[in-house]
Amino acid sequence: xxxxxxxxxxxxxxxxxxxxxxxxxxxxxxxxxxxxxxxxxxxxxxxxxxxxxxxxxxxxxxxxxxxxxxxxxxxxxxxxxxxxxxxxxxxxxxxxxxxxxxxxxxxxxxxxxxxxxxxxxxxxxxxxxxxxxxxxxxxxxxxxxxxxxxxxxxxxxxxxxxxxxxxxxxxxxxxxxxxxxxxxxxxxxxxxxxxxxxxxxxxxxxxxxxxxxxxxxxxxxxxxxxxxxxxxxxxxxxxxxxxxxxxxxxxxxxxxxxxxxxxxxxxxxxxxxxxxxxxxxxxxxxxxxxxxxxxxxxxxxxxxxxxxxxxxxxxxxxxxxxxxxxxxxxxxxxxxxxxxxxxxxxxxxxxxxxxxxxxxxxxxxxxxxxxxxxxxxxxxxx
Length: 382
Fold this sequence. Notes:
This protein is of the alpha/beta class.
């Protein structure tokens, strides 16, 4: 496993994101047994960075981290957690949540700790509740080894935040689609100039770059029949010199195995391979999919709409159309009917709450209205 140097050890280039763990049952409970098997395999292959958060899996990701990792020697892995800025309503909650996170994760300290999702709205929370100052004090006490933040906003804000505060690392969304679409290159260059180590999230864009439209997938297959589409995405992010770790939210053992293979040993992209990615990106853009990563920051919807799944079936529809699949309308209608009536797009009232919370800046109400209209069109066609 490829590693990156830290002050006191080596960090695996591949990080295990505990955001998309395997689930089971009607309510999507975390499948602890399967998840632990995946974690154990990753550890056996040299993966030593594990990332959780207060909100992941409705709060159960931290419990899983505690269950899966407390069985290991504490010095054998690095654990990252986050202060949920979106949940803070009072200054004293910083202390309460931090203590609860330590307890849930069954750990005496966090190796990496992030202010979760600094954006234009949350920076006011950071300032009002003195979040940075409180966490720096935790770092002085040895409860945090490295302090950083995750970021979903404009480059101007990133520049202001890294200029104002002292950071050990910063986590940004970066992949070959978002290099331009989400201004990831500009964000990366800001951190590069400040010599701040970069942690990458969404390298496979919520799985969308692992399940590509047919034309894009065939381009990668022709270039390297043995390499998965996901491996190209991981290598794209990991080839940047300022990157310390690339996080992948893995849901199956097969995904863990494929990602471990990609990083063992790691081979930086060649110039010819970058040309292949550009060709695949051109084909990907033709599918006109919604740039949703299924992070679920938009949930829960006040009206009960299952937003990520609705956006997901629309993307499936667009891929089917791009492949000239005559069953595109039928397949969309079939998937739509599988939702509970309360989860369907037609319940949207365009309140805009989801739009304000979307890290991708997607105009969710507009797309949901479009999905409702598509549903009506499919009904008429059938």
